[in-house]
């Protein structure tokens, strides 16, 4: 169910939601968190789909803010009026995953006061998570929405300039921030860690990582390995790749490797000296999985913190 | 009320006002409002019956003739409708008009009841602006009316959820055993409004948030939260317990550290740009009246020793909400890894007075799945609207009915009002020595000062 509200107010939106809850016999307080999405009209539907899917695991109230592009007809109102208005949508039921979605389309001065716009709509007492699916503000802690959130999720790879976004994020780093390019690595990290968990526990002497050029997750993976293993890490371009294609760990007994040449079939090959190679299914992580993972863990990710504040510079001294 | 058969057939309503209205004007005005706000379908037959008892007297407070006309009108109702000399006066008048109106009512013989009939007077807040003025007001009213027939209306006490506090605490076995300083960490009582002073500028400036709300509503809510179990729910027993608690309230020694005040500044709220308090129409641009007030109170009893009660109220805050939150101490030992309980807050019972009336319990629960034990806060919820589909009566409905029945348990007594002023007066006195209250942006949850005030005690305001 999608209810469209033009020229509305936050008070009306709250009333509408309460009314719908009552009608449908639901309790708003079952929501475990409020997810704020700061996005734009073009990306909105896709972002909401992702949020819906994540909300099945973490029932939440989604509030998406996408500045309005609605043109006010000259004849509609007196000159100068209606430069500032709020359009909204409330989505329930099959249109909203396990929770409800509020889409806010502010225009004019409201765009610059996003915090007081969403405050009346937050789920009482529940943590607030902010997500920037594409462009992120340079300093999340100073951002009006960001400063309200307990956890701030960005996706630098989806921004117009991933490297610059990452540098901004690193410069204004806060323990509440996390970038999805890190979340995308969780499976790789888990598999690498479990490979090294097996005996013999010989020291690793060097590492090679292959993947596309200027690929954020690869840089983060390299930084993590550099920091944790404290050995040289070589980052190698693999032309034509669209994700990390391989990690090679050199030890006295040979090379341990984890390779996924193509993301298409999602099959990886794990080779350990003295054993026949094994294939494992490692499909590319979907954005839904990444968001869900971040919503499941709302406390600071200490390893990510070390990687972006220390490891990154060891790998990318030029940045 | 008439539709539900709660009013006697002889019920009459007489309006007295300065405006130049005829009886038909007044009837039309009442009808419009009944139609707009009644909870049961509007029935013409009920209305007709009710309208027959509606009168209007035009006049000013200083005109003895007008009061004579009032007296005659009421006498006519007594005779023709059978109200039998039972009269309740609902005084919706500014406090300064009280002495005059009481005097006029006395002079025209309306104030004293005849044999076998009652006279009751309902007065609205403010009940004075400090202890001295409250006593003076009381003196004036009791000169004319019998003290037992004075009903001070505090509409919060008429709300179902407030009365449900008594049911929650005293009809159940689960809560009362932990309702004490062994388990309770602190209590937060909040009444937030999202509107500004609007049309009340003239009254509000110089009065401020604490006198307007804390002195009456919040202290009453606190008394109901903290009081011992009354022997019965009769007015005398209930009042005895509330009075005990109010008389055991202790103010913080360092008022600067444990109180906070603020004044709303311009901002954007509910999709509009709104002006700051000092720019509101009718407000002195140099006013130091607070629109946000937060105070810490302690109750010196065995039950509450060491449990702070935080009371806060304000205008132009995040949203309109009134609630009482009883926040519990952490479990003495957590047999989990520290990461497991990182997101676990303190348990709480929240009584939502308005809107969305109900009770919420917050406690920790394991996050499903995963290999690790993770505990996160969840809510269990009781909502009036869902468990009882009958809509709750308006607070005034209940209170006016109580007045007609002469049943006063939900009305604060003179003693309670005086105790409340005794609590607030030293704070107001201290505040009056300070300068401008700290500004807060409209639509946010109040000034930084209030956040710091709780942080000093190691607490945080809840987000209602």
Automatic annotation (TrEMBL), chain A:
Domain Glucose-6-phosphate dehydrogenase assembly protein OpcA N-terminal stretches: 51-170
InterPro entries assigned: G6PDH_assembly_OpcA, OpcA_G6PD_C, OpcA_G6PD_N
Residue ranges the record marks as coiled coil: none
Top-level lineage group: Bacteria
Residue ranges of every copy of the Glucose-6-phosphate dehydrogenase assembly protein OpcA C-terminal domain listed in the record: 177-307
A Pfam match: OpcA_G6PD_assem
Name of the protein in its database record: Oxppcycle protein OpcA
Automatic annotation (TrEMBL), chain B:
A single MF term (Gene Ontology): NADP binding
GO BP terms in the entry: glucose metabolic process; pentose-phosphate shunt, oxidative branch
Any one annotated GO CC term: cytosol
Pfam families xref list: G6PD_C, G6PD_N
PROSITE patterns: G6P_DEHYDROGENASE (PS00069)
Family, per entry: Belongs to the glucose-6-phosphate dehydrogenase family.
Name the UniProt record assigns to this protein: Glucose-6-phosphate 1-dehydrogenase
Organism: Bifidobacterium moukalabense DSM 27321
Lineage, uppermost ranks: Bacteria, Bacillati, Actinomycetota, Actinomycetes, Bifidobacteriales
Gene name for this UniProt entry: zwf
């Amino acid at each position: 169910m999608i209810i469209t509200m033009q020229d509305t107010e936050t008070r009306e939106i709250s009333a509408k939601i309460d009314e719908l809850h009552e009608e449908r016999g639901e309790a708003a307080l079952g929501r475990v968190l409020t997810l704020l999405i700061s996005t734009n009209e073009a990306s909105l539907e896709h972002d909401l789909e992702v949020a819906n899917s994540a909300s099945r695991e973490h029932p939440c109230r989604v509030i998406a803010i996408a500045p309005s592009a609605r043109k006010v007809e000259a004849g509609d109102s007196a000159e100068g009026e209606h430069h500032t208005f709020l359009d909204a949508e409330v989505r329930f039921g099959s249109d909203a995953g396990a929770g409800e979605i509020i889409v806010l389309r502010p225009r004019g001065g409201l765009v610059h006061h996003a915090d007081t716009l969403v405050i009346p709509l937050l789920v009482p007492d529940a943590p607030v998570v902010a997500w920037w699916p594409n462009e992120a503000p340079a300093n999340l802690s100073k951002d009006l929405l960001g400063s309200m959130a307990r956890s701030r999720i960005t996706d630098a790879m989806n921004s117009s300039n991933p490297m610059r976004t990452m540098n901004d994020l690193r410069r204004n780093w806060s323990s509440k921030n996390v970038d999805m390019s890190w979340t995308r690595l969780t499976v790789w990290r888990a598999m690498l860690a479990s490979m090294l968990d097996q005996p013999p526990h010989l020291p690793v002497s060097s590492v090679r990582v292959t993947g596309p050029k200027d690929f954020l997750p690869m840089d983060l993976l390299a930084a993590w390995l550099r920091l944790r293993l404290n050995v040289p890490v070589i980052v190698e371009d693999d032309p034509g790749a669209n994700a990390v294609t391989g990690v090679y760990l050199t030890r006295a007994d040979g090379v341990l490797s984890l390779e996924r040449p193509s993301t298409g079939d999602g099959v990886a090959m794990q080779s350990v000296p003295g054993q026949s190679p094994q294939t494992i299914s490692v499909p590319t992580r979907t954005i839904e999985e990444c968001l869900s993972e971040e919503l499941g863990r709302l406390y600071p990710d200490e390893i990510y913190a070390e990687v972006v504040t220390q490891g990154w510079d060891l790998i990318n001294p030029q940045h | 009320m008439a539709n539900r058969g709660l009013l006697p057939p002889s019920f009459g309503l007489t309006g007295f006002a300065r405006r130049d209205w005829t009886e038909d004007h007044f009837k039309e005005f009442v009808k419009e409002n009944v139609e707009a706000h009644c909870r049961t379908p509007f029935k013409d037959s009920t209305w007709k019956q009710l309208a027959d008892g509606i009168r209007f007297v035009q006049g000013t407070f200083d005109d003895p003739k007008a009061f004579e006309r009032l007296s005659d009108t009421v006498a006519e109702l007594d005779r023709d409708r059978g109200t039998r000399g039972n009269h309740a006066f609902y005084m919706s008048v500014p406090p300064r008009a009280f002495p005059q109106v009481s005097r006029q009512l006395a002079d025209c013989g309306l104030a004293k009841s005849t044999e076998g009939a009652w006279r009751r007077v309902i007065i609205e807040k403010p009940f004075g602006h400090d202890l001295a003025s409250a006593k003076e007001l009381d003196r004036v009213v009791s000169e004319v009316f019998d003290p037992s027939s004075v009903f001070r209306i505090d509409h919060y006490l008429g709300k179902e959820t407030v009365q449900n506090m008594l049911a929650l605490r005293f009809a159940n076995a689960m809560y009362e055993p932990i309702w004490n300083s062994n388990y309770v960490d602190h209590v937060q009582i909040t009444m937030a409004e999202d509107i500004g002073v609007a049309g009340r500028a003239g009254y509000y400036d110089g009065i401020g948030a604490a006198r307007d709300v804390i002195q009456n509503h919040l202290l009453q809510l606190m008394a109901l939260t903290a009081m011992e179990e009354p022997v019965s729910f009769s007015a005398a027993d209930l009042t005895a317990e509330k009075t005990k608690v109010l008389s055991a309230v202790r103010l913080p020694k360092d008022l600067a550290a444990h109180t906070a005040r603020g004044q709303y500044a311009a901002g954007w709220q509910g999709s509009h740009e709104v002006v700051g308090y000092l720019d509101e129409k009718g407000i002195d641009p140099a006013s130091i009246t607070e629109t946000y007030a937060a105070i810490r109170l302690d109750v010196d009893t065995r039950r509450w020793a060491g449990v702070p009660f935080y009371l806060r109220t304000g205008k132009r805050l995040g949203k309109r909400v009134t609630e009482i939150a009883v926040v519990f101490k952490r479990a003495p030992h957590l047999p989990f890894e520290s990461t497991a309980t990182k997101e676990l807050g303190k348990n709480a019972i929240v009584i939502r007075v308005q809107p969305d009336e109900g009770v919420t319990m917050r406690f920790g629960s394991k996050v499903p799945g995963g290999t690790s034990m993770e505990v996160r806060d969840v809510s269990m919820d009781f909502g009036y609207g869902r468990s009882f589909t009958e809509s709750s009566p308006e607070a005034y409905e209940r209170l006016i009915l109580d007045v007609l029945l002469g049943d006063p348990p939900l009305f604060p007594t003179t003693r309670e009002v005086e105790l409340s002023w005794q609590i607030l007066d030293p704070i107001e006195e201290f505040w009056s020595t300070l300068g401008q209250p700290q500004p807060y942006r409209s639509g946010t949850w109040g000034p930084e000062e209030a956040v710091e005030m709780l942080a000093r005690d190691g607490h945080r305001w809840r987000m209602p």
